[in-house]
Design a protein that fits this description.
Layout lengths: L2 H29 L8 H14 L1 H17 L2 H32 L7 H33 L19 H4 L1
Helix pairs in contact: 1-2, 1-3, 2-4, 2-5, 3-4, 3-5, 4-5
């Protein structure tokens, strides 16, 4: 595929990337209404649910970064990479709060199969969070480090032109 064909496809790819990010988060948000931040069981369930929703948006931001890098859309690449980095930090905070809720809730879970299922669910969610944090952070940092340098400009802000008519005079 030549670059012109890819540029024509870029709008559709940006839309797909946006949909892969926005739809799961709207699904997640509508699944946890009404918020009950003071309720440990609600926080545990909500964080566990969030851990399952993060991988589709991860595909969306990956697709978005590929499109920004291929088209050298510097601003979009910086914004998306910054979002990835901030989201990784947010997920880290959610994961820490989730683990604290697990420690507090474990006393309320009856022994036996129910407790085993509780610990399995908690471990699965923490692993998903950890993988998501690493992936979002890696994409964010790599995306920020690979933003192409902007074109050099002279002090007036106009593009620097070397070898034009002015050079002959």
């Amino acid at each position: 595929m030549d670059s012109t064909s890819f540029q024509r496809l870029s709008g559709a790819l940006y839309f797909v990337a946006f949909a892969l990010i926005a739809v799961p988060f709207s699904d997640f948000t509508t699944s946890i209404v009404p918020p009950q931040f003071g309720n440990m069981q609600w926080r545990f369930a909500s964080a566990g649910l969030l851990s399952g929703f993060i991988f589709t948006p991860l595909m969306g931001v990956t697709l978005g970064l590929i499109v920004t890098m291929a088209n050298e859309h510097r601003l979009a690449q910086r914004l998306l990479s910054g979002f990835n980095t901030m989201f990784a930090v947010l997920l880290l905070g959610v994961m820490i709060m989730f683990m604290l809720d697990v420690v507090q809730l474990r006393r309320e879970v009856p022994p036996g199969d129910t407790r085993v299922a509780f610990y399995f669910t908690a471990l699965r969610s923490v692993l998903k969070f950890a993988v998501g944090i690493v992936a979002f952070l890696w994409l964010g940092i790599t995306g920020l480090r690979t933003v192409p340098a902007s074109r050099r400009r002279n002090e007036s802000g106009a593009p620097l032109i070397v070898g034009g008519e002015a050079a002959k005079a």
